[in-house]
From TrEMBL:
Pfam families: 4HBT_2. Keywords: Hydrolase. This is Uncharacterized protein. It comes from the Bacteria. The lineage of its organism: Bacteria, Bacillati, Bacillota, Bacilli, Bacillales. Belongs to the 4-hydroxybenzoyl-CoA thioesterase family.
Length: 141
């Protein structure tokens, strides 16, 4: 199982009045991590969109463990938790510089035609991408 890593320098604008990272920023960081994973595996999400497909989020859950603050560097670790015909679940860990876990998350995505929003199997769009996801998935479907 491949795990992608992406570092993010925490900006002041990402914090709230308590001086900690505002909770919604973790969603953005997960998306940054997912995009980096796709790139690290050798694929191009922008190219997928140009071909007429998008991958909307069906479900997202985040568990907050330990606050992050301005000036720190977060590391987003992303992997493929599971991959089936019509759904892919990504796993995430967001880490402090010392390796302690700030948050964990999972997001579930599907692939749809951009104009109709009808689901389509990734294997019908890009067989190599589908095979790579199936190989890299932590849980084999």
């Amino acid at each position: 199982m491949f795990i992608s890593e992406k570092q993010i320098e925490i900006r002041y604008a990402e914090t709230d009045q308590m001086g900690v990272v505002y909770h919604a920023n973790y969603v953005v960081w997960c998306e940054i991590g997912r995009t980096q994973l796709v790139k690290d595996l050798g694929f191009d999400y922008a190219g997928l969109e140009q071909s007429g497909y998008v991958s909307p989020v069906l479900d997202l859950s985040i568990q907050y463990k330990k606050a992050m603050r301005y000036g720190q560097t977060a590391t987003v670790r992303t992997w493929i938790e599971s991959h089936s015909r019509l759904r892919t679940t990504y796993g995430y860990e967001i880490l402090h510089e010392d390796g302690s876990i700030a948050a964990t998350a999972k997001s579930v995505h599907t692939l749809v035609h951009k104009e109709t929003f009808r689901p389509v199997a990734l294997r019908k769009v890009d067989e190599a991408w589908d095979q790579k996801y199936a190989t890299e998935a932590r849980i084999q479907d």
